[in-house]
Write a structure and sequence with these properties.
The chain has 15 helices and six strands. The chain folds into four domains: about 35 residues; about 60 residues, Endolytic murein transglycosylase (Dna Ligase, domain 1, 2-Layer Sandwich); about 80 residues, no CATH class; about 110 residues, no CATH class. The protein is elongated, with a radius of gyration of 32 Å. By secondary structure, the protein is mainly α.
């Protein structure tokens, strides 16, 4: 700075003015340091868990942080994020936020941190609860006994607003993304919510009223349909058979309900003596629907239970090629059974 510049500043500002400006500058600097570098404390000894979903806006993330008590001021967080140009740099994932991070450290966490990763897991339609527990143990390391315990927990069922004795049947099989540190409660809640979303559809509710069936009854029938065939194209035909039998008061005579009763046996081959098991799940011995779902049915089976194909079939048996023979009377059914047995003999 040359002499003329110094002279001009002195001629404009007095020594006191310069002191005030300097003091104001340091005040602003101190305020910025205090605002953005001071720790933000929340009322918890444990880290706060925050999920950032793909495509989620900065504003939504800031709202989430504020609602969880991680930050006391949303504007300050947005300013800090703007300083880093964080809008396009945020990483999706689950974050465990420790107590005492300042605004700038929070932004750095979402930009440079290592969020908990997600895993893609497919849950097969018609899966038994014990097999679901084993799958979650294998894929996510969750204690399978915890899954089974929660499935029968009255308090957990009440929390999910499920009026049943077991979660089996109320969890929708699909392909899901799960965080690798997900708890048993989180996973079961997610599967339950997906099933709830399906039954919240107005058309589904109307259809249940038309059929005079409850959600529990629909899921129970769907679970039997699911157990009868691997061909989605057959589901509505099979559903029609069972609806016809229910209307006539006939026993369903559904093999999947017997397989459910012997599910802890090493081989699930059904013997004639199994048809005499005294259980309400034995649809050879007791007419009508069993007391609860026998597996977790998928969406296709549920829709089939609600919209059966209209026909006069009352019987069906495997045809040896993945599908079934259908018949309207016992004589034709007996002939179809004979054809199936012949096919089995020829396979040996």
């Amino acid at each position: 700075m040359n002499q003329s510049t110094k002279f001009s500043i002195k001629s404009i500002f007095s020594r006191r003015d310069i002191q005030i400006i300097t003091a104001f500058f340091f005040f602003v600097l101190a305020l910025l340091v205090f605002t953005f570098f001071s720790p933000n404390y929340f009322d918890s000894d444990k880290p706060v868990q925050i999920e950032v979903k793909k495509g989620e806006t900065l504003s939504h993330i800031v709202d989430t942080l504020y609602n969880h008590g991680v930050i006391p001021n949303k504007t300050n967080m947005k300013i800090a994020a703007f300083m880093y140009g964080a809008e396009r740099k945020l990483k999706a994932g689950r974050y465990n936020i420790p107590n005492g991070l300042n605004y700038l450290e929070l932004v750095e966490l979402f930009i440079n941190g290592s969020p908990v990763s997600e895993r893609l897991i497919t849950i097969a339609e018609g899966i038994w609860q014990k097999d679901l527990a084993q799958l979650l143990k294998k894929e996510l390391g969750i204690d399978s006994s915890k899954i089974m315990e929660l499935s029968r927990s009255r308090s957990f069922l009440n929390a999910l607003k499920i009026d049943a004795d077991n979660l089996e049947g109320y969890l929708l099989p699909e392909t899901y993304y799960f965080y690798s540190n997900s708890s048993a409660e989180e996973i079961l809640q997610k599967l339950s919510e997906e099933m709830n979303n399906l039954f919240e559809d107005k058309k589904i509710k109307l259809r249940m009223r038309e059929l005079k069936m409850s959600e529990h009854q629909v899921l129970t029938l769907a679970s039997i349909i699911e157990g009868e065939s691997n061909l989605f194209s057959e589901f509505k035909i099979i559903s029609g058979v069972y609806h016809n039998r229910l209307k006539k008061g006939m026993a369903l005579q559904a093999d999947p309900t017997i397989q459910y009763l012997i599910r802890d046996r090493r081989k699930n081959k059904i013997y004639y003596k199994d048809l005499e098991i005294d259980s309400r799940f034995n649809t050879y011995k007791y007419p009508g629907l069993p007391p609860a779902p026998i597996n977790n049915p998928g969406k296709d089976a549920i829709i089939a239970a609600l919209y059966p194909e209209k026909h006069n079939y009352l019987y069906f048996v495997a045809n040896g090629e993945g599908g079934h023979y259908y018949s309207t009377n016992y004589i034709d059914h007996a002939q179809n059974v004979a054809k199936y047995r012949e096919w089995r003999i020829n396979q040996k």
